[in-house]
């Protein structure tokens, strides 16, 4: 497999990874501290791969859309790593994939925004 397409190849520094996943860099550090994410390190820089970006989006889906806390996310991801479950099988068809592939949707702007009663 070409290194250009290798999803495990580290390529993004924390600020870029945060932007790609719509989270604050501190959130990525918290996920790492909680054992949910393990970016590679080079010269004390965290480097995130496409697989890491996808994992952050799955974590965000579980916490924001499904209301799972970080301890629950950790259990789900551990069970998935052991082959006991698949995150995609826990929810409606395409729901996780759509969220992971497209990222977090922008909040809808209220139709009445900018008007006064």
List keywords for this structure.
117 residues; disordered C terminus; Multidrug-efflux Transporter Regulator, Chain: A, Domain 2; single chain
What does this entry look like structurally?
There is one protein chain. The chain has helices spanning 14-21, 25-33, 50-65, 70-81, 87-90, 95-102, and strands at residues 12-13, 40-42, 45-48. It is mainly alpha-helical and 117 residues long. The protein has a single domain, classed as Multidrug-efflux Transporter Regulator, Chain: A, Domain 2 (Orthogonal Bundle). It has a three-stranded antiparallel beta sheet. A hairpin with a 2-residue loop joins β2 (40-42) and β3 (45-48). α3 packs across α6 (95-102). The protein is globular. The relative contact order is 0.14.
Instruction: Return the structural class.
Output: mainly alpha
Q: Span between N and C termini?
A: 60 Å
Give the uncertain stretches in residue-range form: 106-117
CA-based gyration radius: 16 Å
User: CATH class, please?
Assistant: Mainly Alpha
Strand numbers in spatial order across the main sheet: 1-3-2
**Mean pLDDT, all residues:** 84
Number of structural domains: 1
What's the count of strands?
3
Number of DSSP helices? 6
Level-2 CATH architecture: Orthogonal Bundle
Helix fraction bin: 40-55%
Strand content: 5-15%
CATH fold call:
Multidrug-efflux Transporter Regulator, Chain: A, Domain 2
The general outline is globular
N-to-C SSE series? EHHEEHHHH
Helices and strands, with pairings:
Elements: E1 12-13, H1 14-21, H2 25-33, E2 40-42, E3 45-48, H3 50-65, H4 70-81, H5 87-90, H6 95-102
Antiparallel strand pairs: 1-3, 2-3
Helix pairs in contact: 3-6
